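User: Predict the complex.
Assistant: Input components as received:
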Amino acid sequence: MDLKRTPLYETHRALGAKMVEFGGWEMPVQYKGILDEHRVVRTAAGLFDIDHMGQVRVTGPEALAYLNFLLSANFTDMAISTAKYAVMCYSDGTCVDDTFVYRFSDEWMVVINAGNRDKDIVWMRAQSAGWNVTLEDVSDEFYMLAFQGPLAEEILQKVEPFDLSAIRYHQAREFQIDGQRGILARTGYTGEDGFELFVPASHGKHVWDAILEAGKDKGVLPIGLGARDSLRFEARFALYGHEIDANTTPLEAGLGWACDLNKNFIGRDALLKQKLEGVKRKLVGFEMLERGIARGGYEISVDGRSVGTVTSGMPAPTLEKNIGLGYVPPELAKIGTEFDVIIRGKPARARVVKTPFYANRARGK
Amino acid sequence: MSSGKEISYPTDLKYAATHEWVRVEGDTATVGISDYAQDALGDIVFVELPVVGMELRAKSGFGVVESVKAASDVFMPVGGSISATNDELANAPETVNADAFGAGWMIKISPFNADDLAKLMDAATYKSKIESGEIH
């Protein structure tokens, strides 16, 4: 299969990026190095090409009702120009994908994961039967960038004419650039304050260059998928294919807060049943007590008996600890509980700790 | 492929397709991973090495190098007995990134099976196979 490339591909190469396959795309995994890039986002700001993410525009008289049926969150009282996280479930309650939904005055936009784009759109269209809605894949109309870090607002303010401080956490603002529509939102996937931008596709490189230039004297760096993963991991944001997939439910993944079980949506009945009966496994965060790095797919065991699986694990750059996320039976989910992670055939002790591993400063905004 | 730095291929070493290098001095073979390999792995955060005295055949795994993203096995380019390991790497695994062919060495094999040397590549062959994409 031919890998897709974003229009900034050559720009990334020129910046010294190493490219890897991710979700059918050839994307930068790192430029300067994952550790440096991770630290820059935690202490200054970093710029991400996330144009591989997909966007679906939903319009029509029943757009709200359709989205309430399609997705786990309740959008009824959502304010115009705000964003909300939601899970798209199958009828058995497992995950099609996780999404960010934006509400605008006359349309909605659903942001979906790169690797799930085709599957999601097929699913969304199939579920739209009987609803008076129009779905359009607008992924190619917008160039999606993220600019994240404690200095993101200050630096971005140099290139944006309107007052960024007026955009609060999970609020969005539409703007015009050369007569075309753009969107800027205080959202992100790093655990830091910051923004995600949807600019007209033709302006992707222009905006990318302008932000890097504006942040040059503050140490701003382009950030690859490697640090994007370590940043989201420390902040305990789920990654599809790891913490959530077609075998896990949002309740097991600790995403119950994104599910309104009081409204009817695809998967609701299965989730309600699971909630009443109690989940059989829970996603927990853990820290290694012995030497060794847990990785996604490693087995979790107690007294030599397999009890669960690691979903993501790595040395956390900000915490300087080897930590992980994994599924365990509820009785092992309590903070302080110890279990073994099997690393190359040998058990290494780990202990359940509070998550997020890194406190999400963005939420305070 | 590099992060702005030229990848180096010292010509006095032999290379395995799995990216280990070998330096032969008398009956001792010193082994590490190539500059290309450390660059491809990125920030190295953990190196697991065998115990001294272990006998291992060529191509069998002798340890693990972990970057932020992943764990990668490292293999014996030549068979033999592990006579020393670089214990400095336990506290400073980033040395492999900084000096892959020097202070970032991993193991010494002595005695080693000299016949295995013939199956390794010289620097020019190793470099051309990487640049053509034959090995990666």
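Strands of chain B lie at 14-15, 20-25, 28-33, 44-48, 55-56, 61-67, 71-75, 80-85, 107-112.
Let me know if you want any component modeled separately.
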